[in-house]
């Protein structure tokens, strides 16, 4: 039970820390091109685009190095990974249009 709680705490920490870093990087890239999406609908779209990226990163890499070990842990299929990554890239591409 303790391992499950530790893994949940780890997941929440990953979402906040890596999510903030990814958001900072994305907003910095937009700033290089002179695009501002803070406090707009585009900012929300950027935030929503980060979640599939984090999910793919966790399911394909991080779940195997955590506290909770289970024989049912498997990577995402290539098709699912591709769909999630393409949807994130699409959201990041259209986010500046919703300023």
Q: Please give the share of residues in helix.
A: 55-70%
What integer value in Å does the Rg equal? 16 Å
Give the beta-strand count.
0
Intertermini distance: 45 Å
Q: Give the class from helix and strand content and strand pairing.
A: mainly alpha
Oligomer: single chain
Mean pLDDT: 91
**Would you identify the regions where 5 or more consecutive residues have pLDDT less than 50?**
none
Helix-strand string: HHH
Q: Sheet bearing the most strands, described?
A: none
Task: Write structural notes for this entry.
The protein is mainly α and 99 residues long. It is 69% helix and 0% strand. The protein has helices at residues 2-32, 41-60, 78-94. The protein is elongated.
What features would you highlight for this structure?
69% helix
SSE diagram, text form:
Blueprint: H1 2-32, H2 41-60, H3 78-94
Helix pairs in contact: 1-2, 2-3
Concise account of the structure shown:
It contains three helices and no strands. By secondary structure, it is mainly α.
């Amino acid at each position: 039970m303790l391992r499950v709680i530790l893994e949940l705490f780890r997941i929440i920490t990953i979402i906040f820390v890596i999510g903030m870093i990814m958001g900072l990087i994305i907003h910095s890239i937009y700033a290089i091109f002179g695009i501002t999406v803070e406090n707009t609908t585009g900012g929300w779209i950027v935030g929503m685009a980060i979640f599939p990226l984090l999910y793919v990163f966790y399911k394909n890499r991080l779940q195997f190095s955590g506290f909770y070990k289970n024989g049912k842990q498997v990577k995402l299929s290539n098709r699912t990974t591709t769909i999630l990554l393409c949807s994130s890239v699409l959201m990041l591409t259209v986010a500046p249009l919703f300023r």
